[in-house]
Amino acid sequence: MESKRLIFTLHRVAGASDEERLAVLTEVSQRLDKLIASKLLPISSELTGQDPWEYRRAYSPGLQELIEAMTFLEFLSTGRLLSLSGGVRDRLPSGLLVSQFDYLLGVCDLSGELMRLALNAAAKADFDTPERVLAFLQKLLGCCETVPDRGPDWFPKDFAGKLETMRQSVEKVETVCYQQCLRCIEESNIQLPVVTH
Amino acid sequence: ASPATDSNATGIEAEFQLYLNQLAADLATVESVKATAAELTKLAQLPLQALRCIHRSCDTNSISKAIDEARAALQPSIDLLAKLGQQMPAGTYYKYHQLWREPVQQLCMAVTFISFLESDRLLSLEDAASQLGMAGDSDGGGGSTLHLDLEDYLFGLLLLASELARLSVNAVTAGRPDLPRRVADFARHLEAGFRLLNFKNDALRRRYDGLKYDMRKIEEVLYDVTVRKLE
Question: Transmembrane stretches, by residue range (chain B) (predicted)?
């Protein structure tokens, strides 16, 4: 739940000034730390000594949402993809199992948020953000497409569906950038009316 | 028990033993075909990955580079297809067909995409098959050799149509407003061809239904480009 609120807060960055941006990003980062400390640390200590895969299904959805928030924050701060080993696992309690699948699914959901970010930015006449998002997403989609969408029982069944959603998100951003491009061309071609007497 | 009943019982056991042996052999083949098919599915992505770079940069150099990379990436798939052909006993093509249809369709899409990019030409089924090291549909010879099924070829073409619709949009964004017309001309011929076909109510037909949305996108992009005189 809190992760969803964090994501919502991060969306406010679109069209904001540089100081506002910094303020929001810092705030979210702090709230993220608090969230990890308050919710995930207890889980991880409960699970010490247990087989991590046994209880994974209980906290997996929440974890994916959190990863979505973390990667979103990272993209807005640095434009880069937060990595699993360096970024995500470092910030979370070490006893907690963060599997590649949780990361993968979280990243898929991220594409939806980035799509929303791009669309909102375009609506606010921010043309820079959609382009950056597009470059990022196309690369991300290309890589996700190399992951087999089917596997053994414990392979997430919703991956194929999320991949399809990601494709649609990318297409929406592509359309937005396309329309922007057309508009730019139109505007540069507009002749100012010449007033003659 | 009378001798007659005994021999009946042994007869049934022997019968079932025969089935069990055949089943075991069959399952063994299925497992090995499945393993190769899984490998093929992975490899079949690579040429497409190379080609999809075009959506970001489609100047002439980038396109040639992408085509070269895609061609190189095709070779492992072609080799694996040959291996697949050997794993299936003669006359069992359609028995295991479902296991490896998907990667074949994607490979078909890759080679037809390359043909469009290089020469705006629609690669025929025979040519596509020979590029992939398979026999064409007509010389199936009763389904004994590994051949390119007509439906898989058609499915590949429909996949290509969707990819081209996406390319149309990105070509304008990437500074190639001349591409949408080439795509539109190609796609119109493709659609005309498909309209001649009679489909049964299966996956191919459902995929074909999506073609009209791809066509609409392609026509819209062409309209946008033409009306602004961008070509």
Answer: none
